[in-house]
Structure formats: C-alpha cells, structure tokens
Amino acid sequence: MEENETKQNVNNTQDTFIKGSAWMTFGSIASRILGALYIIPWYAWMGNYGNIANALTARSYNIYSIFILISTAGIPGAIAKQVAKYNALNEYGIGRKLFRKGLLLMTILGIISAAIMYLAAPLLASNGSASDPRQVAVMRSLSYAILIIPILSIMRGYFQGYADMMPSAMSQFIEQLARVVWMLLTAYVIMQMQHGSYVHAVIQSNLAAAIGAIFGIGILAWFLLTRRNKLNSLVENSDNQIKVSTSGLFIEIIEQAIPFIIIDSGIQLFYLVDQYTFHPMIAKFVTANTDTIESWYALFALNANKLIMIIVSLASAMAVTAIPLLSAAHTQGDYRSISKQIANTLDLFIFVMIPAAFGMAGIAVPIYTVFYSYDPLGSSVLYLSAFTAISLGLFTVLMAILQGLSENILAIKYLILGLIIKIILQYPMILMFKIYGPLISTNIGMLIIIFLAIKHLEISFNFNIGRTGRRFTGITVFSILMFVVVRIVVAVAGKVLSPERRFTALALVVLAVAGGIVVYGFLTLKTGLLEKILGEKATRILNKLHLN
C-alpha cells in the first residue's frame, strides 16, 4: 500500500514537472524566438552599423543582467523555493506573507540598483581599454527597466512556488511581445524614416525592456485576480502552526537570496570575463581597429548568442520547474522522489537539448544568413556556439538542482572554480584560437563544474548516473545521425537554394529542420525512448496520433 502511494507520488511529481516544463518551455521558447526574429529587420535597418549596434547592445545587456540579478537579489527564486516549502507543510499563509514582504523589498532594491547603474555607467562602459560615450548612453537607457523588473520577477516567483507555471510563461511572452514591438517601431522610425543615429535607435531598443516589463506585470496582476478565490481558500485552510516574524521572513528571504544571486549570475559572469578581456587580449595578436574588434566581439557575444539562447532557454525552463519540486521533496525528506526528480530533469534536458544543439550546428550557415547576412566567420562562430549551448544549458539545470536541494554553498564553490579556470585559460585560448578562444575557455570551465556537480548528486542523493548515462549515449548517437542528415540536406539542397541569400537560406533551414525532426522523431519512437522520457503523457499523445 505504502509502496503504491510512493509510486503514485513519484508519477504525480513527474507529471507536474513535465506540465510545468511544458509551460515554461512555451514561455521561454516563444519569448526567445520573438527576441531572435526581431533581429532580422532590426539588423537590416541598422545598415552598415549592424555589428557595432549589436556590440553596444551585448555589452550593455551583460551589465544589465548582473544588475537585474542584484536588484532582484535572487529573491524571486528564493520566494519560489520558500513558498513551495511552506505550501508542502500546508502553511499557505506564510507563503503569502513572504510574497507581500518581498514586494516591498523588491521596490527598494529596484530603486537603489537603478540609481547605481545609471550613475556608474561611465565606469562600466568600457571595452577593456577605454570608456565609450556611446556605451554610456545605451547602458543608462536600460537602468529604467531595473526599477520595474524586480516587481515582475517576484510575482513570477510566487506563482512558481505553487508549481503554477502558466502565468509566468504567459507574462514572459507578453513582456517580450511588447518589447519587440517597441524596438521595431522605434528602430524603423529613427533609421528608415528620420535617417537618424544608430546609437539613438539602440537606446530606444534598450528602453523597450522597461516597456515590456510593464505589460508583463499587467498580465500577472490579472492572473492574481482570477486565482484570488482559490488562493484565499488555501490560506484560510492552512494549519497555521508555524509562526514567523517579519524580521524572520526578511532574514529567511535574504539567506536564500544571496546564493541565488551568485549562482544565477553564473553565465553572465563568464560573459563579463569575455567583455572585459577579449578586446585588449586579441589586440595583442592581430592588427585591427577598434570597430573591427568590436564587430568580432559581436559575432559570439550577441549574434551567435542570441540564437543559441533559444535552445538554452529550454534548460532555463526546466530549471525553474525543478527547484520548487525538489525543495518540496527535500522538505518532506522524500529521497526516493529526489533521486527520481533529478533523473527526470536530466533525462528531459538531454532529450531536447542535445538534438537541438546538433541541429543548430547543422544549419549554422543558412540560419546565420537568415538572421543577419551571409558571413562565413559568423557562421563558424555560431557552429561552435551551438555545442557550447549544451554546456551552458546543463550548467543551468545542475545549479538549479543543487539550489533546490539547499546545496547553495557547494554550487557557489563549483561556480568560482569554473570561473577561475575560465580566467586562467582565456589568454592562451585567445592566443591559439583567436575569436573562438572565449568559447573554448567557457566550455572547459563549464564542463568541470558539470562533472563535479553530477558526481556530488551521484554520491549524496543516490542519483542513478548509469541509467542517465545510457540515455545520454543513445540520444547523442541519434543526434549525430540527425546532424549528418541535416548536413546532407544543406549540402545537396544548397546547390539549388543558395545559403548566401536570405529567402533561399530560409527555405534551406526549413527543409533541413524538417529532415532532422523526421530522423530524430523516428529513432526515438522506434526505440521507445520517447515514452521512457515523457512517461504516460507520451503514450496518450501517440495513441491520439495513432502512432502507437
């Protein structure tokens, strides 16, 4: 009886995880796709200033992302984790109190962080050699969003604590839609109608982050209203056995938040190493002017990065879903569920991420042409970046797992070690591989973190690495076969559909992606891998499609 109940709980957890991942994947992928598609007209309207405009954007967003993490202080993730913890104890009232106190804290931190970013922009706007006045103006335009986004983030965290991922997903989509509309509208008016400055266009494009955040808050407020009766009922029927003071709540939030700041900024910290070292280091090995080096920087820091983040967002979606579920299981001492949840998270990650990365590498040339223009160097950078996406995604998921299991200090130690390795290797990698050097040093640093994290989960939480390892091997083999087919389609069809022109390159991408999906889908269906990863949901879907 007890064994059946445990098995039922494990299945329910898997269903909740898959459902949550589906919603967060929708939100992340839809917003990422919008964020990538806008670049096609935007980049074209910038004319000859496309790469320089992208370099300005990339440098500003790297700093902005760190300030967002500081201004939110990791509190949304901490709120999600703590709300899930108290909900598991039937103390919904404390979760609501956490949310309300967190909103106040967010407002204060947002004001302070926005002011610091605005005033410190002249110091931060450096390419590693000198401050850039263009960068100062662009960076300051992003500071306005920091006033608003902390509130948006904590509202998302509250819903995630209930494992209710749909509001967060929809707010992501609406936020990005409003942002893209503003970016395209202002870029068109400034560059095409007024024939104005590309710097002014970039400033307006960055201001769009604040516009999007306002719309995101609006949709979340609507979801809170529609769910008000249900949430009130849960609070009214709480056990109310645990008493936590206001000061106790703030201390608890901050204790949980500090590790979230450090860990969540992990990828951005790797990017900041590139931002402040690439220009001065590569200038020692090649003879090129500042704008040329900035254009090279844009190739991997924004051009390729914007495309690979579409697939890395898959990992982010899974990570956000995993934290509250793991936290709840950890609070209840359900170590069997923890082991199963770790396996579910990693299985789903490799099932989606590895073929997505191989697929993007396979279509690197035509897809780069579609979004930017035909550029052999840019396409080569994207090719390597596609494989880097696996490391970035796996890092994101594993750090989220460690956070959900309250292994925050250990996660921070792994991150610091990885960063030290990245910094040590940066100079020799740029010396040997030039523009590809930063990507290679990032991969090595990330892989060491990944190895250490997986070994810890295996030893401390009885994670079955053997089963996941076998699935990883099978999926990698399937992905390589798919990659070969995609490359053949690109090579053969490319003789008729030129990868050097945008519309024919788009047709080439569609053909190659279709071929890749068919091959990977066939292999996973034929071997039963799809049902092993997705469980009963896959069986129901296959039955409806008469494929089972």
From TrEMBL:
One of the record's GO cellular component terms: plasma membrane
Residue stretches spanning the membrane: 21-43, 63-81, 102-121, 141-159, 180-201, 207-225, 246-271, 307-327, 348-369, 381-402, 409-429, 435-454, 475-497, 503-523
Pfam families for the chain: Polysacc_synt
Predominant cellular place of this UniProt entry's protein: membrane
Membrane topology: Multi-pass membrane protein
Recorded superkingdom: Bacteria
Record's keyword terms, sorted: Cell membrane, Membrane, Transmembrane, Transmembrane helix
Localization in the cell: Cell membrane
UniProt protein name: Polysaccharide biosynthesis protein
